[in-house]
User: What shape does this take?
Amino acid sequence: MTDTVLPFSVMGGAVRGRLARLGDALDTILGDQHAYPVPVAALLAETMALAAVLATSMKFDGIFTLQAQGDGPVSLLVADVTSGGDVRAHARFDAARLDKVPAAARASVPALLGKGYLAFTVDQGPETDRYQGIVELEGPTLEDCARAYFKQSEQLDTAIEAMVRPPADGRGWAAAALMIQRMPAGSGSAPILLAEEGEESWRRAEILLGSVTGAELVDSVLTPEQVLYRLYHAEQLVVFEAKALRARCRCSRTKVEATLRSLPADEVAAVADGDGRIVVTCEFCRADHVFRLSELQHS
Assistant: This one.
């Protein structure tokens, strides 16, 4: 399955949405770069799908990060998406504690993440203040936590459906997130409606969204356009240009070297091995950046 986000509008522009689908990127991150247990990988796949659909609904030039942190067996989930479409992700977990989670609860946020928070961050560089929104982890899925964020933050009315399919029968990972938002009357192409008309349009869009099945969201036979047509063909559906995504890490030897050079010399020397080598492994892509202590001690 290709990695894309497809924007669309319905109800004459009163409701806008995004359908994010990930496949190849998941296989790279969850299959090639990491070897997480399936429950952890599935949570991280959902995090990536939600990050993709949320990031592409915003106007920014930089990095959008979705992070879940808790006191459970899975202590951290991080996925970030650049404005250019680069996606990366990683997780931290305690294998011993994870083994004690009953099989029936291994898709549950309370059982895996425990108590904690879900954070949304937009970073547009050092010249711009970072935007961050935080919500407590409430609900059985990350999808539910994201819904709670929009409800509590009093932003646009928002509805989200998400689905993850682990590898099976020769197929790789697949994940999808479908989000709709109610546009303020008169904003952009949104029509100016009477209050009752606006409520009815949003209610209908939300009901139709709820009718989509998880199987449809991740069915590689169905194109994103076909999924949307099944749901909204009678609701003035307009589909816009798709945005391509890809698995790509931003780490580099230059960045790692700059970080090491910014540290006190004794701290750098303390992490060198007996041969004077320092190996820094990227948490996201697992790439090793190897330095000689001697090259860091001389400009």
About this structure: The chain has two domains: 4-247, 253-296. Residues 253-296 form one domain. The longest strand covers residues 74-82.
